[in-house]
């Protein structure tokens, strides 16, 4: 039998697997490799860290099929010369087709101490450690969140609502947080933070992090917990691959989402160089197209003509009752985007379960 290996059970890997299951020829075996036994809704890790949801609420079982195997293991490297994936446990697995959906890691931008002395919400295990740290803080403790993008804003707001006894400071290097959003959205979010006593440190320049200390423009500021949400980069496995990449280290692909020099290897999600910012929605859309390419290949048909990927928009949470977003060129603030995000989240979760 021919073997398709999918690396990573995130949004791209899960969508791809779900799309392929009903179209698997008898001679195709699929192996999904992931360290976790479930698909986790990573976009909700901020709530897991803040203590407002349990991991049970954000996990989805991988779909089952006689020709699909789920292998809980960690990838060490990819050897293109022999079409093999090497695992940390020493095993090696050959593939006929490979889909890389390994996601991203924190990008510390070369700041000394950032990796050692900050907490993360990039993986479930790291998020759970962050939750433990935050949950054990005494009333009046100081929390620093480094990075005023979507993840930092959602974490700061969720934590402020769930733990109003904490003193939370959100650092961002720009003059406004969420600078890629319309000014209406940025202004609304900043007012929400002011009303909920979250301190904004704009135009910041983090130069060093030591244990319980953030150096902003060389000034040492003491904190009881520091969480890093200031950017991501492709996984180390991707960084180690000797293939063409863009300036951010993401793999350059053809319009069919495979390597220009190797049509056996596809890339989905945060590791793929696309003309849109990385997101769960983008990973899912891309995975749908990769599924169409593979299904056509298995049938011996010509590759499909793939349209440009278009995203519906972005929605973010400000606690349980408020939100913000940008949908169909329209800026949204208040209760409506929060309701929309909640409904879309649980609709997608139930769809993945089925």
TrEMBL record:
Xref: Pfam families: Pyr_redox_2
Keyword Oxidoreductase: yes
InterPro entries from the UniProt entry: FAD/NAD-bd_sf, FAD/NAD-binding_dom, NADH-Q_oxidoreductase
Alphabetized UniProt keyword annotations: FAD, Flavoprotein, Oxidoreductase
Entry annotated with the keyword Oxidoreductase: yes
Domain FAD/NAD(P)-binding: 3-287
GO-annotated molecular function: NAD(P)H dehydrogenase (quinone) activity
GO biological process assignments: aerobic electron transport chain
Co-factor requirement: FAD
PANTHER family xref list: 64 KDA MITOCHONDRIAL NADH DEHYDROGENASE (EUROFUNG) (PTHR42913:SF3), APOPTOSIS-INDUCING FACTOR 1 (PTHR42913)
Record-stated family: Belongs to the NADH dehydrogenase family.
Annotated protein name in UniProt: NAD(P)/FAD-dependent oxidoreductase
Organism from which the protein derives: Niallia taxi
């Amino acid at each position: 039998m021919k073997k398709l290996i999918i690396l990573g059970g995130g949004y791209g890997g899960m969508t791809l697997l779900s799309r392929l299951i009903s179209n698997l020829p008898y001679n195709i075996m699929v192996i999904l490799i992931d360290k976790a036994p479930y698909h986790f809704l990573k976009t909700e890790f901020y709530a897991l860290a803040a203590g407002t949801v349990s991991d049970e609420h954000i996990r989805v079982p991988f779909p089952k099929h006689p020709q699909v195997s789920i292998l809980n293991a960690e990838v060490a490297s990819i050897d293109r010369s022999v079409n093999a994936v090497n695992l940390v446990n020493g095993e090696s697995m050959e593939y006929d087709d490979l889909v890389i959906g390994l996601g991203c890691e924190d990008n510390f931008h070369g700041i000394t101490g950032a990796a050692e002395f900050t907490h993360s919400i990039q993986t479930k295990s790291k998020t759970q450690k962050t939750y433990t740290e935050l949950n054990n803080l005494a009333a009046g403790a100081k929390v620093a969140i480094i990075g005023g993008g979507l993840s930092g804003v959602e974490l700061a707001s969720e934590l402020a609502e769930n733990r109003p006894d904490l003193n939370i400071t959100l650092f961002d290097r720009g003059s406004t947080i969420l600078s890629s959003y319309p000014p209406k959205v940025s202004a609304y979010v900043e007012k929400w933070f002011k009303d909920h006593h979250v301190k904004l440190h704009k135009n910041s320049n983090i130069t060093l992090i030591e244990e319980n200390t953030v150096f902003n423009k060389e000034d040492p500021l003491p904190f009881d917990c520091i969480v890093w949400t200031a950017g991501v980069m492709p996984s180390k496995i991707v960084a180690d691959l000797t293939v063409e990449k863009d300036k951010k280290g993401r793999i350059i692909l053809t319009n069919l989402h495979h390597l220009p020099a190797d049509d056996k290897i596809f890339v989905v999600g945060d590791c793929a160089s696309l003309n849109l910012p990385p997101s769960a929605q983008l990973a899912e859309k891309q995975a749908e197209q990769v599924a169409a390419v593979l299904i056509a290949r298995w049938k011996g048909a010509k590759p499909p003509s793939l349209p440009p990927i278009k995203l519906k928009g972005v929605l973010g949470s400000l606690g349980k009752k408020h939100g913000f977003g940008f949908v169909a060129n329209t800026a949204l603030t208040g209760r409506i985007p929060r309701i929309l995000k909640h409904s879309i989240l649980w609709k997608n979760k139930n769809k993945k379960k089925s």
